[in-house]
Amino acid sequence: MNQKTYDIAIVGAGAAGLMAALPLAAYSREHFEEQPPVSVALIDRNKEAGRKLAKTGNGRCNFTNTSAPSAPYDTADEETLRAVLARVSPGEVREIFAQYGIESAEESAGRVYPTNTDAKGVRDLLEDGVGSEDVERVYGFAVKSIGLADGGIFRLTAENGDEILARNVILATGGKADPGSGSQGDGYAFARSLGHTVRPIHPALVRLRHDDPVLGPVKGVRVKGTVELYRDGERVDASYGEIQLNPGLLSGICVMDVSHGVYRTNEHAFDCVLTFDGNGPDGVPKQEIPARLLKAFTDALGEEAADEYLRQEKPYTVAVSGTQGWKEAQVTAGGVTLSEIDALTLESLRVPGLFFAGEILDATGPCGGYNLHWAWASGFLAGMSAMKRVIGDRNVLELQLREEEELAEEVVF
Ligand SMILES: Cc1cc2nc3c(=O)[nH]c(=O)nc-3n(C[C@H](O)[C@H](O)[C@H](O)COP(=O)(O)OP(=O)(O)OC[C@H]3O[C@@H](n4cnc5c(N)ncnc54)[C@H](O)[C@@H]3O)c2cc1C
User: What does the pLDDT read at residue 42?
Assistant: First the structure.
């Protein structure tokens, strides 16, 4: 049987995979008269696209941030990361979204949200934008392995033995966070099997665990302050905002933002130094001290110490024992090393025709729309570049055929 070979297979129909598919579909629609369409398979293990995307931002989808290009992402290759971010700005992402019917507005701290729909609507509108005539959906197809067959063709094998052949592959399988959404970390094994290095991964944007005797029993308290993260006594990160206290857990956006710095707690000692907003220099309290917090400090340490920590901004050190796991984490820190990828095209420097996009890569942003921005930026570039490669290959083929024809004519006459 002559099996169809797709021009491009996108593995993962999450944020990055959908964004990669958009320019491919638009190209085929625009140039259908002069060019044969680029054949694309959009593959996902789920029966639907963007399961995680549909629940982002507490259902509202904080899809980019106006300060994304200069934001503090965690990566081992800052240069490649900045080069990618420099090519697709938050404004451009908003323009692309507007083309597909998603209007947006900037809220506090540069966070951008849709104004006329929610996270599920964003997923649906982007999927509608991909269209059905140009991009074939292959949902319910859980890729188990990716190998290289003769002629540089990729062979994608599913868990049930089904196969898909493709000339180019965009790996957009996400990370390992929130595995119930379909992102179970398989992409790292595919990348490794194709010769790529994966920076060790760990859960990030996740609550921190502690056994602190004072804060241990505190439940349902929200208090403003600064969180500083120390690794083996060295200050590695800091953030300010609302700290949430629950039995054995520290959370809140500012805690989540420093959480990517916590890993291998059996090898390193981590501390969170909390400085709660107390009285300003004029003696005026910056916030009302939550009664439950005041009671916990007073009961454990006495009135004087409670006053120092809660009103006089004396830093309070909490030993961190670990993080919550993959199920609770919002993103994955670590991933496919950026230095093995072309920053302009997102194509592998090791395997021609292999592209990467999204969370599978070693790029972790803080809370605030930065991780989705990375998925859009890298997805868009990977989609465009894969398409250029397909068209480029066709042109080379046409040129070769023409040269062969001309040669044949020369021989005849
Ligand atoms: C609850 C929650 C809320 C969040 N809110 C925000 C927010 O508001 N703003 C923000 O910037 N970020 C947010 N994030 C992070 C953001 O959602 C991710 O960074 C982003 O979705 C990553 O996009 P991706 O396309 O790389 O991966 P994913 O969205 O995870 O998509 C990967 C896709 O690949 C598929 N797949 C994986 N392996 C296989 C396989 N072997 N075969 C076939 N298919 C496969 C999966 O089923 C999945 O559909 C949130 C995350 C969570 C969990």
Answer: 97
